[in-house]
Design goal:
The protein has 641 residues and is α/β, with parallel strands linked by helices. The protein is 31% helix and 24% strand. A nine-stranded mixed beta sheet has the order 16-11-10-19-20-32-31-28-33, sandwiched between helices. Strands 3-2-6-7 form a four-stranded parallel beta sheet. α11 crosses α12.
Length: 641
C-alpha cells in the first residue's frame, strides 16, 4: 500500500544476520579510521566504565581499528559547527596514500563536532574517493553528539560494509526480484541501496521482525499492550510494547556501542539448545553455551552429547518424538537417557526431576529478562499479554505468563516463522536526527526546534518518496530526546504540534520512568528526530471457520511436577475458532509445540491465535462458552516418560 508502484512488481523483503554475525564472530573487514589529530585513541578510552565491576583485572574487546590504522589530521570545528582550524590541503592530498599503506578494506571518517557541521568530513571523504573502498562518514550516518558513540558506530558500519555490500549485491543479482528491502533494527524496512551504505542499520534485523510481527497479531486479537517473547535455539529475545514498539540508542553488540535507533530488545542466553550442566558448587546451570544447529540437542541424533532444554522437553513428553517438523521428522528419546541419567546422578535426583529442573532454571532466566523490560521500567506485567513465538516459545509461555501475572499468553499462527512474518508486514521507514543541545529557557529554542523539526521532516519524507513511496501514505513522527540539565542520558518524547508541549511530555515521562519530576529544573532538548514511514504490504490472514465439535486428538503422557499425567495431543491444523482445551494438553504444529499445563486452558480466537490462561479447568468450564475437551478424556500419542 505505502510503496506505490514498488509492490506492483516482484519485491523481496529480507532479514539478515550477516552484519550481526560478522561483529559477534570478529570476521568483518579491516578498517582505517580518520579523525582529528590527538583523538586517535577515542575507541580505546571509551567511557572509562568497568564492565566487570568486581574483577581485579577487567578486560574489554580489542578495538576494531588497530592503533597503526588510526590516522589523525589537522583541522578543528567547534561545538556550534564553527571552524576553529582549517583543513590542510597538502595533508588531504597525501591522505589517500597514507590510508592505502594501511591495507584497510574499509574507511571510517569521524571528526570532532561533525554533527553540527559535516563540511570537514565531506572534504575528507572527497579526497579518498580514488581508493574505491567503502567510506563511512559519521555526519551522514549519525549526526549526533557524543564522540565515542559516534566514532564506534561509524567504525562498526565500516567494519561490516564490505561483507554486506558483497552479500546484498549477490542477493540482487541472483534473486530475480525487481526490488529488495532489508529489515532494519528500528522495526522498519530500508531500501537495499541504503542497507549497502549503512549496514549498521541491520544489526538487529531478525529480532526486530519478531517484535513487529508479534504486535501485528496481538492487535488482530484485540491486545495493544504486549510483552514479546522470542525463544529460539540459542537465545531468547524479549521486548515491551505499550501499544507500540519502544526504541533505544543505548545499544551495544559484542561490547561495541551502536548508537543508531534500534528496537529496545533484551537478550538472554536461554534457548532450546542451551546446555545444562552442574557447576563446581553443585548448582544446576542452563546456558549461555548452546549446542547450536550442529550437532544440536541429543534428541536430534546428530552427535549431541550434552543435555539441552529441548532434550528436557522430549524426556518429559512435551515434544512428541513422532510430531517433529509436523510429523515429517522423528526425535530420538532413547539417546537422551544416558546423559539425562548422568545429570540426575550429579544432582542426586531422578531423571524426571533433573529434566524439570533444567526447564525451571531456563524459565527463571527468561522471567528475569521479562522483568527487566517491564517491572524495572515501571510497567506492571499484569496489564500486558505475553506473545510467545520462536521454535520454543510456546512451550514456556503458560508458566511464564502465570509467574509474571500477565493477562494472557498469545501464540500466533506459525510461531516459528513470526520474525519472517514481521518483516513482511513491517513499514518502510527512514529516521533522521540532529543534535540541538538547547535549554527550553533560552529565548530562541522554540524557533531553532521548529526549524530543525521542519527540516528533518522534509528530509525523511523526501527520502521515502525517492524510494518509491506513495506520497499520500507517508506519515512523519516528530520526537525530541530531552533531559534535565546535568543529566547524562535522555528520554524520547513526542514533539508533534497536536500533542502536549514537549517539556511537559518530558516531565511526565521522567515521572513514569524514575518516580519524580522537577518542574523548576531546566529541560534540555538534546536531539531532534523525524521518522517517516509508509505501510508495508497488507496481509490478510486466512478465515478460520467456527468449531463444529472437539478436534481429533491422540493420547500421550506428560511428566509435570514429578507426576506422569495422561494428556492429549491435537494438531493445530485441526483447530477451529472457538475450540477450547483444558490442560494438560499439547498443540502440535510444524514450527512449534504449545504446552498447556494442568489447571491451564487454551482457546482459539477468530484470527487463529491460541490464547493461554493460567486458570483451573473447572473455572474455565463454567466461565467460557464453546467446545471444551474434558480433562478426564484419554488422550495422547503413544509416548511414555
Amino acid at each position: 500500500r505505502g510503496l506505490g508502484d514498488v509492490y506492483k512488481r516482484q519485491v523481496l523483503l529480507h532479514g539478515s544476520t550477516v552484519a550481526t554475525n560478522a561483529i559477534l564472530e570478529g570476521k568483518g573487514a579491516s578498517v582505517a579510521l580518520v579523525t582529528n589529530r590527538g583523538f586517535e585513541d577515542v575507541l580505546e578510552i571509551g567511557r572509562q566504565d568497568r564492565p566487570q565491576l568486581y574483577a581485579l583485572v577487567g578486560h574489554r574487546p580489542p578495538p576494531l581499528v588497530p592503533r597503526e590504522s588510526r590516522l589523525g589530521i589537522s583541522g578543528r570545528l567547534g561545538p556550534q559547527g564553527e571552524e576553529l582550524e582549517a583543513l590542510d590541503a597538502h595533508e588531504l592530498g597525501a591522505l589517500a596514500d597514507r590510508l592505502d599503506r594501511t591495507g584497510a578494506a574499509s574507511i571510517a571518517v569521524c571528526l570532532l563536532h561533525a554533527y553540527a557541521n559535516g563540511a570537514h568530513e565531506e572534504r575528507v571523504a572527497d579526497a579518498l574517493r580514488t581508493l574505491e573502498r567503502p567510506i563511512s562518514v559519521s555526519s551522514r550516518l549519525l549526526p549526533e553528539y557524543r564522540e565515542f558513540e559516534r566514532t564506534s558506530t561509524t567504525v562498526v558500519n565500516a567494519y561490516v560494509a564490505p561483507l554486506m555490500s558483497r552479500y546484498l549485491e549477490r542477493l540482487e543479482a541472483e534473486s530475480g526480484a525487481a526490488a529488495i528491502a532489508v529489515m532494519g533494527s528500528n522495526g522498519g524496512t530500508v531500501a537495499v541501496e541504503r542497507a549497502v551504505r549503512e549496514p549498521a542499520q541491520t544489526v538487529l534485523s531478525g529480532p526486530a521482525g519478531g517484535v513487529v510481527g508479534a504486535l501485528a497479531w496481538a492487535r488482530r486479537s484485540g491486545y495493544e499492550n504486549i510483552l514479546t517473547f522470542d525463544m529460539g535455539g540459542t537465545s531468547t529475545d524479549v521486548s515491551l510494547c505499550p501499544g507500540h514498539p519502544l526504541r533505544t540508542r543505548e545499544f551495544a553488540i559484542a561490547g561495541r556501542p551502536v548508537a543508531l535507533p534500534v528496537l529496545d530488545i533484551h537478550t538472554v542466553g536461554a534457548g532450546g539448545g542451551s546446555i545444562a550442566r552442574v557447576d563446581p558448587g553443585g548448582a544446576l546451570r542452563v546456558g549461555p553455551e548452546s549446542a547450536g544447529a550442529s550437532p544440536g540437542p541429543i534428541c536430534y541424533g546428530r552427535g549431541g552429547s550434552e543435555v539441552t532444554v529441548t532434550d528436557a522437553h522430549v524426556w518429559l513428553g512435551r515434544i512428541p518424538t513422532d510430531a517433529f517438523l509436523g510429523g515429517e521428522g522423528g526425535l530420538d528419546r532413547a539417546a537422551v537417557a544416558g546423559p539425562m541419567n548422568a545429570l540426575a546422578e550429579a544432582l542426586a535426583c531422578t531423571p524426571e526431576q533433573a529434566a524439570e529442573g533444567v526447564l525451571a532454571v531456563a524459565d527463571a532466566a527468561m522471567e528475569r529478562a521479562l522483568r527487566v523490560i517491564s517491572v524495572e521500567r515501571g510497567y506492571d506485567p499484569a496489564g500486558f499479554a505475553l506473545v510467545a513465538f520462536g521454535g520454543a516459545g510456546a512451550l514456556h509461555a503458560a508458566e511464564l505468563s502465570e509467574r509474571l501475572g500477565c493477562e494472557r499468553a498469545l501464540i500466533p499462527p506459525d510461531p516459528g516463522l513470526l520474525s519472517a512474518y514481521g518483516i513482511l508486514t513491517a513499514p518502510v521507514t527512514r529516521e533522521v536526527s540532529r543534535s540541538i543541545l538547547r535549554s527550553h529557557h533560552e529565548p530562541d529554542t522554540k524557533a531553532v526546534l521548529d526549524e530543525s523539526l521542519r527540516s528533518l521532516s522534509d528530509q525523511a519524507r523526501n527520502a521515502l518518496l525517492a524510494e518509491g513511496a506513495d506520497p499520500g501514505a507517508v506519515a512523519v513522527e516528530l520526537q525530541i530526546d530531552a533531559r534535565y540539565r546535568g543529566q547524562s542520558f535522555e528520554l524520547r518524547v513526542p514533539a508533534a504540534p497536536d500533542r502536549e508541549d514537549w517539556v511537559e511530555a518530558f516531565h511526565r515521562a521522567h515521572a513514569a520512568r524514575y518516580g519524580y519530576r522537577r518542574d523548576d529544573a531546566p529541560v534540555e532538548a538534546v536531539t531532534a528526530r523525524a521518522t517517516a514511514s509508509a505501510p508495508g504490504p497488507e496481509v490478510v490472514p486466512p478465515h478460520i471457520p467456527a468449531s463444529l465439535g472437539p478436534p481429533p486428538s491422540t493420547p500421550c503422557s506428560v511428566v509435570h511436577r514429578g507426576e506422569t499425567l495422561p494428556s492429549r495431543a491435537v494438531w493445530r491444523r485441526d483447530l477451529r475458532t472457538g475450540d477450547r482445551l483444558v490442560g494438560p494438553a499439547l498443540v502440535l504444529d510444524s514450527s512449534a509445540t504449545t504446552w498447556v499445563p494442568p489447571q491451564g486452558s487454551m482457546w482459539v480466537d477468530a484470527q487463529g491465535v491460541l490464547l493461554l490462561a493460567a486458570v483451573s479447568a473447572e473455572s474455565e468450564a463454567t466461565s467460557l462458552e464453546g467446545v471444551r475437551i474434558p480433562p478426564s478424556t484419554p488422550c495422547g500419542r503413544g509416548l511414555s516418560s
